Amino acid sequence: MKPTIDPHPWKLTESSWNPEHQILSESLFALGNGRMGQRANNEEGFSGKHLQGTYIAGVYYPDKTKVGWWKNGYPEYFAKVLNAVNFIGIHVRVNGEALDLATATQVSHFHRELDMHQGLLRRTFTATLANGLSVRVEAERFLSIVDDEVAAISYKVTVEDAATVEVVPYLDFNVVNSDANWEETFWAQQGHASTPGQGHVHAKTKKLDFHVAAAMHCQVSAEGQALNAHASGREGYVESRYNATLPAGQSVHVLKYIGVVNSLNAAPEQVVARAEEQAQQAAAKGYEVLRNAHADAWIAKWELADIRIDGDDSAQQGIRFNIFHLLQTFTGVDARLNIGPKGFTGEKYGGSTYWDTEAYCLPFYMASTDQSVAKNLLIYRYKQLGKAIENAEKLGFTDGAALYPMVTMNGEECHNEWEITFEEIHRNGAIAYGIYNYIRHTQDRSYLAEGGLEVLVAIARFWAQRVNWSDAQEKFVILGVTGPNEYENNVNNNYYTNFMAAWCLEYAAECAQWLATEQPADYAELLAKLQLDSDEIEQWEAIRENLYFPYSEEHQVFLQQDGFLDKELIPVNELDPAQRPINQKWSWDRILRSCYIKQADTLQGMFFFEDRTDLDVLKRHFDFYEPLTVHESSLSPCVHTVLASRLGYKKKAYELYLRTARLDLDDYNHEVYQGLHVTAMGGTWMSVVYGFGGMKIVGEDLHFQPFLPEQWTGLSFHLRWRGALLHVQVAESGLTVAHKDGPDVTFHVGGMAHTLKCCETFHA
Amino acid sequence: MKPTIDPHPWKLTESSWNPEHQILSESLFALGNGRMGQRANNEEGFSGKHLQGTYIAGVYYPDKTKVGWWKNGYPEYFAKVLNAVNFIGIHVRVNGEALDLATATQVSHFHRELDMHQGLLRRTFTATLANGLSVRVEAERFLSIVDDEVAAISYKVTVEDAATVEVVPYLDFNVVNSDANWEETFWAQQGHASTPGQGHVHAKTKKLDFHVAAAMHCQVSAEGQALNAHASGREGYVESRYNATLPAGQSVHVLKYIGVVNSLNAAPEQVVARAEEQAQQAAAKGYEVLRNAHADAWIAKWELADIRIDGDDSAQQGIRFNIFHLLQTFTGVDARLNIGPKGFTGEKYGGSTYWDTEAYCLPFYMASTDQSVAKNLLIYRYKQLGKAIENAEKLGFTDGAALYPMVTMNGEECHNEWEITFEEIHRNGAIAYGIYNYIRHTQDRSYLAEGGLEVLVAIARFWAQRVNWSDAQEKFVILGVTGPNEYENNVNNNYYTNFMAAWCLEYAAECAQWLATEQPADYAELLAKLQLDSDEIEQWEAIRENLYFPYSEEHQVFLQQDGFLDKELIPVNELDPAQRPINQKWSWDRILRSCYIKQADTLQGMFFFEDRTDLDVLKRHFDFYEPLTVHESSLSPCVHTVLASRLGYKKKAYELYLRTARLDLDDYNHEVYQGLHVTAMGGTWMSVVYGFGGMKIVGEDLHFQPFLPEQWTGLSFHLRWRGALLHVQVAESGLTVAHKDGPDVTFHVGGMAHTLKCCETFHA
Question: Looking at the structure, do residues B288 and B165 belong to the same domain, yes or no?
């Protein structure tokens, strides 16, 4: 049961109405502008199954956790993405009957459209109400990316027969989170006021004191005449009521301008005035002006970020859908914000930031947006270093060791399953990898002195304390961890975790050395601040050199963990399909003792460091692990697509790509109603650019080794690389790289280095 | 902060009043009669910190579980020991002022006494109320073990100065569980009625429809004259109000007879009438008669069950305290009942039955009570076999394999931590061991055909499916388990679990063979019922022979699990005491990757099967594991006491014994307020009889190898053994075994066999 999305290169369109699809379409057609976002709820309301959701970036609630058995060190709360003021609402009554697609006797000419190129949501339909009257509605709205505290709605109701139409634009802050653990409300109303056509509501969170105010300014006309409003309000709610008695075929047209301001960006006592000012200024500019500026800004974003796929509209639509949601979730203007797994499209998964950001999303932002966007994602972690150190202290670590949380809003851990909270410590490696990846991509090392090295040292200190010496192995070991493959818990010597630990120790030392050489004053200051000395760095080296890695001589592969070969190794394709997905069919113990892999684990390390992995080694590992992988994480297929591409497993690469490209659009996992898999969308981008586009960073060097899936006739994308802008085209006729802007770029194709200046073109 | 319990061989006495001790004393002085039990709450009520608790055996509530992250196969509910009707209550007012030791301005001559020899709870005190008046109270009560649906209270109030005393005996069913997960109430009132001096209340549980009725019959007199009552009631509550205007030095005396009947033992529509009849008949007999019959029955119980320790009143009091609570928790008359970890002394740990029963409690009941008592504990498991098979099916097992639950009331699993619910599967071994232990102790094999072999086959089938073949080890392995040491989770090849699995397969086959030979008709019927054949039994044998056990050649010990030697092995005595108990100081991951052992694990197997373990092997394992053991389970010290005794580690044995003997009396773990560690009391009994008493079963043979702790001058106990009754005395002068009743008994001392007839005595 899922909406039919018509194929279109730039749009999501839905051309039939089914009330059961509404809750899914609300996710798919969601809008965001980095500062706020919302599900594609109907302006006029909907009494059928739906999930009302408006979310303000960085505004969250520390909900009480729900846990059966407490463990020492568990967090006290679980941060929730917070449903905030409903500012899109416009009640509509026709001869007194409410317009509601759930109760309409007929809905025809339904068309819903998300114009991704311009960032506009449109909806038109004709509805026949229970009283027999029919109206035609044309609605369009957007959240401005030019002024990210502004939204605007154009909503036009046309009557088929003469009728009295009442339209009531409103703001409603009486909202709840559908996933509140104890059915609590999270907002305390702070005031409201209304005058005809205008009004505001203001609330603050019951904990943490985030203030949010929304203000509206409405212009309503009928038959070209402005209508007068009757304003009213109650706690958390304001409205302006307009009535028009219309002859057949005439319309009432609502323009609703909204300002939404929160206390991350304004003093609490200023949020109301600022919101009113925003609404006022938006109204003064007018809808067309606002919309055009917004659409132009979107078009400009696409200039850098677009991927074009020729010959396959469905794939084209899929990749643009992913890019669109990434761009509207995080715009990179604020280092306090990050990328929640569901972005602004749902409440699920609470806390905003996972290791997904560094592992799956950062590459997209580095390649497709201004360099400052990716850097702000790094700075976000530096801002939370203190909390990461506190988090490690709760687990018994000392001396400035940091363990970044698994799930967080403000740097504090929010997750409480011991096998993840305490043991899925590889996430620390991804934080360091993000720094490494940013530097190799941009060559911008400024972050090291600005906080990056502090982060790396704190992470290195964690690993140095987390290992222990095994007399039996005569090596350092890392016991009791959960790797990226969460279908194994509390294992010893997870290869990926050990690998990342060793690499973190190495990279922290290398960066320290770099800073010592290049910025000795900064380095000296840092040594003093961190009480770091060369003995400690040498100790890191000693651990790194003597860290144990489980290995099978028989299979010539690193083992996912100690004892992996004691399992029954039955390939996934021999499993009874009725047993899948195993996470819905099997008890946890059965999953754990099985060989099945949720997402790339050993292979994740080889993906991160493909320049350290020979192709034949990669092939052995891929051939050993991929057949045991059930890909039951949205983050799994993308990594395997890239690796399969490297190995020339073209069919496999494309097959896995299909599982990631339209995951949400085709609702593979029957969970789109909860929201989209926004962070997995970064993985889809990598599938295309790293996989089929063949982009690869070896050491410091950029490589291309593309191939075109046989279903496609062409693939092209822009790529920001160290200040330059490249345009890469893969066609049946070969690879074309055009230098569009910036300094010279050297890249390798087929073992040969090529250097392009602006605006040269390379073809092979 | 704990009550001072005066040393006394037969009594618990407390001779000073401190309101902060009340909640602890309520646990320590608790009463039970197998059918019901209650904390030592004050009859007159107490507004200070306390935990009101009356519990009816077998009557529980399926409370909603509280769990953060659901796993497939988790139970739908968590059974709660259910707080039931408060039937002890007697409000007292003196010139209108309520008697309440929390508000009294002075409490003197306080004496609380649990007479364990006669099963009586007494309390006397003088209290000065806020209005300046002083009263003397003498209270005594008991729950009859002659008629286990009857309780009686004698409560006498004497005024120092002339005053009007109002006494109000009542029944109150408006009770809650303090540990209700969602603050729900569990009882639905079904009716109440009262007449002067009499009344009843009747409620049923909101789920499962357990009905409980309590009735009272009161006789109240002042200065030798019966008083008239004023009866009243409201939902769930009835009372009779008596007023007496007393001259100085005179008393009002309440005799309250209570009948408590529940629908496990009567039709729901009969519980009220039966309760009224019980109260009525009790009143007709009179308090003295009832009490004397009850006290005589207790004295008779002690004839069999007592352990006498000479020279150490504190130790004497401790062991009798343990025996007393075991005897009042489970009397063995009803195979639907079992031994909850807290008995009738608190709500904590919900569900009633753990593997504690078979592993720690069964030996006491076999040796100290009628054989039928222990057998009923076995039958309990047979009654729940169907549910154990369903439980295994939920986890993917088939063909009649059974996994007994970790925690249960009715056979359904109630626990939901995956590492325990799904992985602490060794409990299945303890169920089988209970059968084996019963048979070797009693030589009664009747249970095998009556259900025991069905249980053993279902357990064997579980293990046969739970192993998997490891190509790497060329052995069968058991992956992903939690052993008795719960400070390790999801480990591979836990030695104890593997050992028990192998033994279960062996023992099921052996018992099948026995039944085939001795009761071929029963066996044939069973084969058909279970669809069992010789191929399946041979497969058990093949698995048993090829099961892997982790072993260290270097240390010459079986390893607790794979990889154990990768840990840092730092003895507990080198741990900073500030870090202990580690389960309160460390996060779970740190506990897991440490070497520290919560309770006997590898050693538990050697304890169960000491006849299969040579002393030098035992010594190596004890010397290896005990120093790593933190004994943070109440079930830990006892096993180690017995093993240390075997090894001649007398000091260690006594040191560990002290941690179990007075665990609750001295409130070592600061948790007595929640209730007592009733199942651990069976372990204490084993410490004394198996440890110092040196009782040991080798193959089929009874051995004694006693030693007397130097703090003691003598130890003696009775022992039921295969229909005979022995009295064993250990003194400085040596061992004396007196045959008191029944068939001849052969036992071994110092390698020599001795056979005694009734009523011979052996001395060595």
Answer: yes
Confidence of residue B78 (pLDDT cuts 50, 70, 90): confident
The boundaries of the domain holding residue B163 are 11-303
Task: Answer yes or no: is pLDDT of A69 > 80.
Answer: no
- What CATH number does the domain containing B15 carry? 2.70.98.40
Instruction: Say yes or no: B319 and B289 in one domain.
Output: no
Q: How many CB atoms lie within 10 A of CB B398?
A: 10
Confidence of residue B80 (pLDDT cuts 50, 70, 90): confident
Answer whether B472 sits within 8 Å of A568, measured CB to CB.
no
Residue at which a domain ends, from A612, A630, A648: A630
**Res A348: pLDDT:** 80
The answer on A435 and A286 residing in a single domain is no
Q: How far apart (Å, rounded) are the C-alpha atoms in residues A473 and A662?
A: 46
How many CB pairs below 8 Å do chains A and B form together? 132
Q: Quick one: which of A153, A120, A159, A152 has its CA closest to A137?
A: A159
B636, containing H or E segment: helix B636-646
| A562, A566, A576, A584, best to mutate vs chain B, most B CBs in 10 Å | A566
B480 CB neighbours in chain A (<8 A) are 589, 592-593
Provide the whole-model pTM.
0.94
Q: Residue A76's pLDDT is what?
A: 83
C-alpha A218/C-alpha A228 separation (Å) is: 11
Q: At A328, which helix (H) or strand (E)?
A: helix A313-329
Cβ B396–A587 below 8 Å, yes or no? yes
Residue B50: other Cβ atoms inside 10 A: 20
Residues of B in contact with A492 (CB under 8 A): 563, 566
Distance from CA of A676 to the nearest CA of B (A): 21
Residues A539-557 as b or e (16 or more Cβ within 10 Å = b): ebeebbeebbebeeeeeeb
Same domain for A550 and A434?
yes
Please give the residue of chain B at the shortest CA–CA distance from A418. B588
Residues A213-225: what's their mean pLDDT?
95
Whether residue B208 sits in one domain with residue B324: no
pLDDT tens for each residue of B120-135: 999 999 999 999 999 9
Domain count, chain B: 2
Pair (B113, B134) in one structural domain: yes
Residues of B marked as catalytic: 486
Domain assignment of residue A316, yes or no: no
- Which pLDDT score is estimated for A659? 87
CA–CA separation, B622 vs B620, rounded Å? 6
The mean pLDDT of B219-245, rounded to a whole number, is 96
Best of A491, A586, A589 to disrupt the B interface (most B CBs within 10 Å) is A589
pLDDT in tens, A443-458: 999 999 999 999 999 9
Q: Is residue A437 part of a domain?
A: yes
Q: Is residue B426 part of a domain?
A: no
CB contact under 8 A, B423 and A566: no
Closest CA in chain B for residue A421: B589
CA B728 – CA B718 distance, rounded (Å): 6
In this prediction, residues A4-11 reach a mean pLDDT of 91
Q: Which residue of B has its CA nearest to A73?
A: B587
Task: Please determine, for the modelled complex, whether the ipTM score is greater than 0.85.
Answer: yes
Are B157 and B41 within one domain? yes
Is A486 marked active-site?
yes
Catalytic residue from among A26, A149, A166, A486 = A486
